[in-house]
Amino acid sequence: MKKIAFYIVMLMGILITSVLFLNPQKVSGSMKYAPPEQGTELPDSVMKFVQKACMDCHADDGSSMARGKVNFSKWGTYDADKQAKKANSICKELTKGDMPPKKWRANNPADIPTQAEVDMICRWAKGIQK
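The chain above was modelled as a monomer; its predicted structure follows.
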């Protein structure tokens, strides 16, 4: 019985020593982890357009497929690089006429993006590119 207790104490000591020895410590200097640069909120002019032509589908209460591409309800949580990539894709989709979809356009003819609005979105997208 004494041998078993001795081995248990030794095993616990080895485990505690291992945990203390292998426990990662904070690193300072150039090796320190830097979180991604936080993105920015949408400018008012872009937000007005997005609310009119995009958020029916691309928001928390919109289509799950559309939210998977871009979710404007979470735009501020995207890091700057992700925002730049999404903005570039938005410009391309609007320019090609693929967004908003034809069915949405048929149901919302007064809200179809004008060429001036598409140009404004593309200028904004180019402005946030790194």
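Residues 44-127 form one domain.
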